[in-house]
Amino acid sequence: MAFIAIILNILNVDWYKTNYINGIIIVVVLGILQGSVLEFPIQTIATLLVGGETRMTKKGKSNGYTIVLNYNLLALSTDEIDECMETMYEAFMGNLSPNVSAVLVSATNAEDLKNYEIEVVQKYRSIIYDELYTEGISFAKDDFDSINKLHLEHVWKLYEDMNRTLFIQEYLHDICDRYAREFMVIHRVSRVLRKCGQYQDLMLLSDGDDEAFSYCDDKQYGKAARRYGEPLFYESEDVTNIFGRKFDYTMVLDGDTGVPKGGVFELLDIAAANPDRGIIQPSIKLYCKKTDTIFMHLETMRQFIYEPMTNAIMALLEQSAYFGKAMIKNRIYIDNVIGNRNNLIERVPIDVLSHDTFEAAILQPLYAGSTYLLEAPSFNFITWSIRERRWNRGEVLLAMYFWKTGIGKPMRWVQKKMLKEKFNETKLRTESKLDFVSSYVAYSALRQMIMKPLLLFYVIIHISVHLRYRYASIILVMFMVLIFPKFATCTRKNYKYVLIETLASILQFTPEAMVGCVRIVKAVQANLGANIRWVPQRSVEDEFRNSNPFISSFKHLWGYSLFAVVCGTLVILFLERAILITIMLGTLFLLPLYTGVTSLPLKPEVKEDATLAVIDIENKCECYEQCHVSRDSGLGSSISNIEYCTKL
């Protein structure tokens, strides 16, 4: 198909009127651009042929498997901590079992925030204790209707043959206390490998290693290496609780990743039927409330529309990408990605951001589309762009490792010139050999990223080339990207959403030929060591919530509108046949308006008084302490104390 496209491009050029060099350049650029977008119609055709329905993944019995729900956080504010802890609490209580633990691995620097993390964990432990105590009393009374159904099945039925009075007096406190203590936070000593290092060290701690041995070689990693033998985590009761437990699986999660009720049990059953897979990758479903922004609803809509294509391609490849949020088999991961003290592997580069590409290359994740994790979409175009820029920086780093001679060496040379004595040369200890499927998955984001400068270059150079059908090529490209995939996803039920998403995509992604190139340039600059200012997403969200979204949008994007006005004026005055540039500049000018409109909530939020919630948490903490005082003083769990707890 790419070869046919190149032939058609050659025939489309009027070589009698066109400079040969310009003609050759546009044929090459169009060939690469069309080759990059050909995967969209191929995926569409594949979806039409094999079907885009969700496949049910084979399951087994996982009664004995243990798992830790691992949330990873580097907090800059108490709000981030509150959000992460609430999400971790919901995941833990929605999948409560003797074999499930929850651990926040914190890389937070500020001491006051670290102390706050510990404080919030204690509050949630109190809540967990109180909720389970209440359920335990109901269980003792055979009042099963008032008990969470999953808790009844996975927790309380373990004690159904026990004498109820004995259960209350001798066991209930210890049961509740045991589960409360499985809600943990540990603070990492090192920042090596960032998030990837957080869950790697958690796995090693669980495996019985509490001192660093990986990424300690200063000959390999220079100043980025950590000290051999230093503690992995700061000493605490939770670190002691995890040490040597040898969890079978680690569910790697971000601070805002939700786990549906019972989802962990489904994933463990899938893992039981696929013991050779190092990663079980559930689908990621975006979710939002009616009070969330229009942009968030558009992102959720977009994912819903394209989900059939994801299902079809993953089924054909029999392999998935690793999305950075998935269930990992600890033994396979340690043996193939980290290594041990006598045989270091260290397959993930120490400075890489997109660690999941290297992990997926060796562990070949299984896509479990029948299960899912929950994640909130970006708040608006600004936060989406910030995330994209961060990902672009990761892709640039990947390119330096994928093509060490063509990209890696020149980039390292420029880094050395710019950073001088601050330059730190690093090496990859173990390279990953990618097969065809792994390569296709690994290079996917790079292919999409390179489309933007190619598209911009084409829009500019096509003015100097005489084409027989001037807009046929670019119309074909846009058709393959925006329209043709809808043939595999549009139905009578969702056609309205498809139309809305298509219109929004035109407004959002047409300026990407320019905006995307700016992001790539900043990502390259950041990798070269330039002092690039990265605006935290949460601060942008707070700004938009507390001010007029149109003013905030213009504050962040006014440069694009000004650029569009200046260039648009010059184009109208001095250029002919510049419709493509005019369209791009027009959507670029409208970008602040589009951002302002889509930053509005779909439905206004009704603020509630949070006082009751605070009082409730404090009461539950008091309840937790009261029960502990009663037990520790030798009084036992008397009925009066139990009634006191259940009332609260």
Automatic annotation (TrEMBL):
<feature type="transmembrane region" description="Helical">
    <location>
        <begin position="20"/>
        <end position="51"/>
    </location>
</feature>
<protein>
    <submittedName>
        <fullName>Uncharacterized protein</fullName>
    </submittedName>
</protein>
<keyword id="KW-1133">Transmembrane helix</keyword>
<keyword id="KW-0812">Transmembrane</keyword>
<feature type="transmembrane region" description="Helical">
    <location>
        <begin position="471"/>
        <end position="488"/>
    </location>
</feature>
<feature type="transmembrane region" description="Helical">
    <location>
        <begin position="581"/>
        <end position="602"/>
    </location>
</feature>
<keyword id="KW-0472">Membrane</keyword>
<feature type="transmembrane region" description="Helical">
    <location>
        <begin position="557"/>
        <end position="575"/>
    </location>
</feature>
